[in-house]
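Onboarding guide, step 5: your first structure request.
Type a short instruction followed by the sequence, for example:

Predict the 3D structure of this protein.
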Amino acid sequence: MIVLDPRRAVVRIRKNLYSAKLVDLPTIIESSKTLDRKSLYKTADICQMLIIGDPISHEETILAYPSKSSDYIYPHGLTPPLRWVRKRRFRKRISNRVPPLTTKLDIN
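The system replies with structure tokens like these:
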């Protein structure tokens, strides 16, 4: 694996080059392991994922495309029920503040 910048890389699999990017997951996932098939031990918190993309011919082709910060925010989780979880769970909230009144009422 060749890292080109903090979020983009080139992955080599059996003499083929693939583009890759490191994305942030919407939720933190706990990984665990067992030694006796009864007790689970927490081993790590996973919050990023490496996504392997299309095959490329040269390493420099990844740097030719500009990158945005929104490209590195993954909208889905790892399982099908978490599809579009960032949009559903973390949507923008309506403000509870009352807007100021701009008109005056005359009572006669």
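Each response can be followed by summary notes, for example: Strands lie at 2-3, 8-13, 16-34, 40-56.
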